[in-house]
Amino acid sequence: MKFAHIGLSVTELNRAVSFYQQVFNLNPTRIHDEGNQKYAFLINDQGVMITLWQQSDQGFNPQHAGLHHLALTVGSEQELLDVEQRAKAAGAEFVYDGPVAHAEGGASAAIFFRDPDGTRLEVMTPQAPGYKAARTDAPSCGFF
Predict the structure, then answer these.
(1) Which SUPFAM superfamilies match (predicted)?
(2) What's the distance, CA 58 to chain centroid?
């Protein structure tokens, strides 16, 4: 089994489409923006699909049950740094300053940031040793 796609609720469809295009190089395959039905399907060359649904009047709330964070994997440290630069250019709010290890001494590293609606995002690469963990008492991906 594998994921078919991830669907996210957003407050402003056009803003969200622009963000996910810019940061993740996702291309819209369908945008529907009529009446109260506003949604978009975005996909990349590797088949990662994110669907965006304008069905919320307020941003992400980590206090509500449901999605904790969305994590994506890239193949190299350079790809991770490239995503970081695109996210900064898109105005993303970062949780930590730059890439951090998931745990102290770990080989993987990740960046943690929020989309325009506050949805927590992680982009990681399995092989980028040498980064410090953001904290020692819990995994960096805990967003504590």
Answers:
(1) Glyoxalase/Bleomycin resistance protein/Dihydroxybiphenyl dioxygenase
(2) 18
